[in-house]
Amino acid sequence: MPLTVATKRRLVTAALVGPASIWLFFFLVLPFIAIIVFSFGERAPEGGYQAAFTFAQFANLGSRAAAFVNTLILAPIGAAACLFVAYPVAYYLAVKTSPQRRLLLVSLVVVPFWTSLLVRTYAWMYLLGARGIPHLLELFGIENIRLINTPGAVLLGIIYGYLPLMIMPIYVSLEKLDHRLLEASADLGAKPLSTFLGITLPLSLPGVMTGVALVTILLLGEYLIPQLLGGGKVFFIGNALVDLFLQSRNWPFGSAIAVTLVAVVVVVLLVAMRIAWRVAGTRQVDLV
C-alpha cells in the first residue's frame, strides 16, 4: 500500500526533528528532571543527595538572599548598560555606514568572541588592579582609588563581555529597515528626532527586546565575571551554585536554587515577550 503525501510529510518531519528532539530530551529534559528531584531531597551526611520529599530547601532560599539580590539588580542594570552602549553602535553600523565598511566594522564587533572570556576578564583584572588604571591615576595625584572587587568592576566586565550579544540583534533589526521610510519622513518635514522615535525605534524593538532578553538570561547564571572582577565580594547565583555543588556538596539546596533560577528566567522571558508584543503592536516578535 503506497504512502500518502501526508504520511510522507510526517515521516520527513519526524526524520528531521527526531534526532534533535532525542538529543534535547536526554541532555536537557532528563537532567532538569533530576535537578527537580534533587531539590526536594536532603543533603547526605557525607555530602550529595539523599532521597526524601521536603520543601526545606526552598524554605531556606533566604540564606542566599544576597546572591539573588545582587543578580536581580546587576543583571538588569548590566543589560540596560549594554543596550545604552550597543544601540548607537548598531545604529551607526546599519544606517550610517556603507556596505563595504559595514562588513569590516561588524567583523570587529565579533572579533572579541574569538578570544576566551576568561582571558579577556583576566586582562580587565590587570587593568582595574593596583598596577593598572589606579596606578595611572596616582600619577595625576588621584590616590586611594579602588576599582577591582567592586560592583562597578563587575558591571564593567558585564558590559565588555556581553556587548556583542546586544549589538548583533539590534543591528539585524536596523539593517532590515526600509530606508525609504526614513526618506519619506524627511520629505514630509519630520525632524530627525521625530523620525527616530516614530519609525526607527519602533521597527527596531524586536531586536532590542531580543538583545535585552538574551543578555539578561545569560547574566542570571553568570559566574566567571563576578568571581574574577568581584573577588568573591559580589556574589551572583552562579557563584552560589558552584559553592553548593562543588564545595559544600549540598546538592539538594543547590538544585532548589537552580530550579528557582530557571523559574526566574522563564518569567523574564515571558515578561520581555509581552512587553515587546505590546510595544511593537501586531508585528511578529521572536526572542528565542
UniProtKB/TrEMBL annotation:
<dbReference type="Pfam" id="PF00528">
    <property type="entry name" value="BPD_transp_1"/>
</dbReference>
<dbReference type="GO" id="GO:0055085">
    <property type="term" value="P:transmembrane transport"/>
</dbReference>
<feature type="transmembrane region" description="Helical">
    <location>
        <begin position="103"/>
        <end position="127"/>
    </location>
</feature>
<dbReference type="InterPro" id="IPR035906">
    <property type="entry name" value="MetI-like_sf"/>
</dbReference>
<protein>
    <submittedName>
        <fullName>ABC transporter permease</fullName>
    </submittedName>
</protein>
<feature type="transmembrane region" description="Helical">
    <location>
        <begin position="12"/>
        <end position="40"/>
    </location>
</feature>
<feature type="transmembrane region" description="Helical">
    <location>
        <begin position="147"/>
        <end position="172"/>
    </location>
</feature>
<keyword id="KW-0472">Membrane</keyword>
<dbReference type="InterPro" id="IPR000515">
    <property type="entry name" value="MetI-like"/>
</dbReference>
<keyword id="KW-0812">Transmembrane</keyword>
<dbReference type="GO" id="GO:0005886">
    <property type="term" value="C:plasma membrane"/>
</dbReference>
<feature type="transmembrane region" description="Helical">
    <location>
        <begin position="253"/>
        <end position="277"/>
    </location>
</feature>
<keyword id="KW-1003">Cell membrane</keyword>
<feature type="transmembrane region" description="Helical">
    <location>
        <begin position="67"/>
        <end position="91"/>
    </location>
</feature>
<keyword id="KW-0813">Transport</keyword>
<comment type="similarity">
    <text>Belongs to the binding-protein-dependent transport system permease family. CysTW subfamily.</text>
</comment>
<keyword id="KW-1133">Transmembrane helix</keyword>
<feature type="transmembrane region" description="Helical">
    <location>
        <begin position="193"/>
        <end position="219"/>
    </location>
</feature>
<feature type="domain" description="ABC transmembrane type-1">
    <location>
        <begin position="68"/>
        <end position="272"/>
    </location>
</feature>
